[in-house]
Amino acid sequence: MLGSGGYFAFNIWDFESARAVIDAAASVQHGVILQTSTGIYKALPARVFSAFVKSYASDRGIQAWLNLDHCKEKEILFHAINSGWDMVMADGSSLPIRQNIDFTNEIISYAHARGVLVEAEVGQVKGIEDDVVVRQDAIASREEIAEFLNKTDVDFIAVAFGNAHGEYKVEPNLRYDLVEYTTSITDRPFVVHGGSGLSDEILTRLIRIPGVKKFNISTDLKMAYKRGIEKACSSWSQPVNASKIIHDEIMSESVAKMKLLG
Ligand SMILES: [Zn+2]
Q: Domain total for the chain?
């Protein structure tokens, strides 16, 4: 699916945020992944939304893929697979490793039969992202990573390596050795969760590791939205102007991230 090099995956929440991210991707001429949390997925008209993303991206001349991020619910995963989503994250990371493998394989067999790719996570990335709350640090072990890759046909592999969702309260202690270990034993693209709040320096270091290909950004985009709303209210004129101010704030945040890809 993805070409060489890395891709940012931005968590969007409605049609306008999706449009801003696609406009950002078009302005830097780079493909992009748009993703929804499970909660947002349920709030959107799935088929209409996927049709919109495809048609708007094609109109802007870039490739955009749609991912369902962190989903533990089979019915919703199957629904997304049948609603034009290009990939889904089967999130069995809170389960013991064997059960995570079984859960992931069940989703994979359904998804692959319909041309949809699957991401899964080993260990659990802590923090808060919409309906996903993980308080304990659960860094993956090398044995679990190897076993997971051996026993599943997963297309994208996420590993908890000290990264976190939401804002980092303290400087993250990232286990680059686990990232490098994973990419040394598989060609399957490595996914960095919790990209928001990682400094540009850290993101750039991760971008340079061959095999690390998907960088998830959620909180940073939501903060851009909030800045946009504040700006729009403080210089209020018409809704159309307010919408543009918010759009531009989300777009420039996305552009700044994508420029790190070089
Ligand atoms: Zn995540």
A: 1
Q: Exactly one of 69, 86, 91, 220 is catalytic; name it.
A: 69
Distance, CA 87 to ligand 1 centroid (Å)? 14
> Is 91 labeled as catalytic in the residue annotation?
no
For residue 211, what are the contacts with CB-CB under 8 A and spacing of at least 6?
Answer: 182, 183, 186, 187, 189, 190
> Is 117 part of a structural domain of the chain?
yes
pLDDT band at 130 (very low <50, low <70, confident <90, very high): low
Tell me the pLDDT tens digit for each residue of 171-209.
788 999 999 999 999 999 999 999 997 999 999 999 999
Rounded distance from Cα 194 to ligand 1 centre (Å):
6
**Is residue 65 in a domain?**
yes
Instruction: Provide the total of helices (H) and of strands (E) in the chain, helices listed first.
Output: 10, 10
CATH of the domain at 116: 3.20.20.70
